[in-house]
Amino acid sequence: MITWLKKCLKRVCKACLNRLEASGSSTVGSAEPADEPRPGRAYRIPREDERDPLREAFANFTAPSRTMEEEVHFKPVGSDGVFVARAENWQRVGNTVHGRVAKLVVVTCSGEVVPPGSLKAVCSTCRGYDAVLVRCAVCLKTLCHLHACRFEMPDGTNAVLCEEHRKKADRDYDTWAAQDWAQKQEGRTEK
Questions:
Q1: Are 43 and 22 in contact (CB under 8 A)?
Q2: Among 68, 75, 104, 129, which is 20 to 30 Å from 117 by CA?
Q3: What is Dmax (Cα atoms) for the chain?
Q4: What pLDDT, on a 0 to 100 scale, did the predictor assign at position 169?
Q5: 183 contacts: CB under 8 Å, gap ≥ 6
Q6: Half-sphere exposure of residue 169: CA atoms within 13 angstroms, side-chain side
Q7: CA atoms within 13 A on the CB side of 62
Q8: How many CB atoms lie within 10 A of CB 164?
């Protein structure tokens, strides 16, 4: 930033000196009026409606105003897993510096809105990203909320299963063991 400032000051000073030389005045504050043309050199004061690049450069350099906008973008993570968490864009237009800061908020595959740093799992079924780590109790595959199946085992415990193991658990479900467990919980166990 400081080197850029030095370069700008050099350019402005150089433009001022070139302007003074073009006007025929060799030193600042000379006894000769600056408006008078010297023999052999043409000098003309720009009219008010004409563009004066020196004045524009000086005005842009000395007093730029700044504006800044902050945006929030809701985006799902792409299939490659790459996303931009924060982006800044600055533009100079005339005497104003416009800034735009875009922050990304991730929409997970299950529809939850989370900051980018809280993603924890890639679902093994849909390859989507989720903020909660859920695993199948049998094969330990990671699952999102949409593909995690809750299943009540015959002993009354709840298990999270993938689709494949849920189908197998449905097929192999022991209704007699489930009934025995229910009766044991109620205290009506028959001997």
A1: yes
A2: 68
A3: 128
A4: 82
A5: 189, 190
A6: 21
A7: 8
A8: 14
